[in-house]
User: Fold these one by one.
Assistant:
Number 1:
Amino acid sequence: MAEHMSKAKLAKQDVVASLVEKFKTCKSVIIVSYKGLTVAEDTELRNQFRKAGVEYKVHKNTLIKRAFNEIGQTAFDEFLNGTTSVAFCEADEVSAAKVVAEANKKLNGKIEAKCGFVDGAFADANMVKALADMPSKEVLLAKMLGSMNAPISGFVGVLAATLRSFVYAVKAVADKKASE
């Protein structure tokens, strides 16, 4: 019996250590509340997380709390009650929040963000919703490059027009000289 207890305790310590590592390496961690999901809905939700490159797991509140406390984060303690799952995203800050927000709409509130851990800082539910509304990094980069490209395109257009005007002027002078 004592051996069994120590195995269970070791397993819990492994889960906490794994969570601590994920909290340190992921750009965003969303703490999710879920209630009343059917098996089909849960399967679809997990597929959406997978497609977005997000790892989604159900963990015990006490283990999540212990892992956050190990890295000096106590702001999560009050949110770790009821049904809790965790969405981990190593790639970016917004993907996990976007999947949760879309699932919230699609599943009529059966799933919602309680809070998050984004770039090493606590984020309340409103901040997580704001993250979900943000465009992805790729979209932001494309917009930025587009806005940077616009003045360059305009400058090239002005140069081309100036060059065209110069060519027309030289041609007109050459035509005039030829007709004299």
Number 2:
Amino acid sequence: MNFKGHLTSGVVVGVGIAAGAVYYGYIDGDDLQTQVAVAGTALFFALFPDLDTSSVSQRWFFRVVFCGMLVLGWTERYELATLVGIMSLLPLLDHHRGWTHWKISPLVVSLLLGATYEYWQARNAFMGEFDWANVRTLIQGHWIFLCACIVGWYTHLLLDGRFRIFPTDQDHH
């Protein structure tokens, strides 16, 4: 699949996840900022696996990441800026269609980064007394982003043919 296909699918899946979250009451219908953030997260991960090759899309992606990190720094959201920086560099650590195209990567990487972010948030929220109710509140507020990561990434892998839903005649021989 080419860049335009992954871009289109990322937008469709992202908007679908955000709309579903609003429909089922996980995101307030008036909270446009969270809706855009969820859709943007799915789009980011729909494009993420192909950022390991030099291209026009890679350059534009890093320009957007740079601007996003400036905004996150300006608004003092340093933990999130750190995760965005780490995530955007990870594909460059391996060859094209390397670990970013493994079937297990979306789950492992998303859960690991989600757990790291939740830890940072919990650490800052519980400088005094630890309370499990606060941990549940944090997780409930961020799980939709974890879903957007995983679904966006698996959408990319599906369109790249990593999962054979409709077998061809060659698959039967």
Number 3:
Amino acid sequence: MKAKAKEFATLAHAGQKRKNSNVDYITHPIRVAERLEKEGFSEELVCAGYLHDVVEDTVYEIEDIEKLFGKRVASLVAAHTEDKSKSWKERKQHTIDTIKNAEKEVKYLVVADKLDNLLGLEKDLKEQGPVVWDKFNAGSDEQKWYNESIVRNMRAGLSNHEIPVYFNEFEQVVLRVFH
């Protein structure tokens, strides 16, 4: 199922590029899925890692994900899909509320995604400087608020043994990028 999810995501994101670069977009979901797999998480969660942006950024709907990959994968993707009809602030507040109250697999997916995005942003800032903020819907201050809010809420409800190593990595990257 993981190979099928990777192939589907690759086709769905064909032609899309990452912000601030000419890199194929699919590199991001692949890195998210690989991080989840490295942690030993479930096949469904790894598949959701590949598919997490499909509904948000392509022509496919959550029903397509459910039909091809089942209810569990679809529910993980749906929990992490933003409603693009809402404002940036509303969407980010929804993600913060989700991370605070979600089941652990949703938390794992959200933080793996945010970590990969922030590592890319950190690299872009080093290479291109503050001009990278021009491609975002919100500037540095709002991005700082958002990422620090994820850090404050990502461990809620998890016991120490349930917290993956990359949560600490995310916290460190937030400090590096925004302080």
Number 4:
Amino acid sequence: MRIISGEFKGRRIPSFGKIDARPTTDFAKEGLFNVLNNMLDFEELSVLDLFSGTGSISFELISRGSKPVVAIESNTKHCSYIRKVSQLLSVDQPTLLRTDVFRYLESTKMKFDFIFADPPYQLEELITLPDLIFKRQLLNKEGLFVLEHSDKHSFMTHPCFSFHKSYGNVNFSFFTLQD
């Protein structure tokens, strides 16, 4: 895992043992952040990183000045990995919550400027995430939600869908609040 830009630009994050996460590839992450650079001001951006896995997206956003960054991950090994990377980088972010994403989404009262979700591609509930995010009104007015998924899913008919980008086998659907 490599941090692309910001305070920790170029830093390679070592593996601390075997983890089961499928991190967003550097190629896809670079493509995603090229798009986001034209849409978001990362400084002081409030972020929710769902299915955080290795924390790759969280640490990229922290490196670019986003805060607060809240990372939701249910896997104990992945949470341990994220804590170790936070220590390695000497940062007090992200705020890491070891819990089920859907339980968190149903209970949180927080709103965010940017929400990123990278669920397991085979997760049956993956298709419900956009509806849940917008039903619970978790985005601030100018907020952006990005969902990473396989090419087996299409969200083009969702009322809040904005556009889609793909990088190899990695697909990102972008959603915004519609008037």
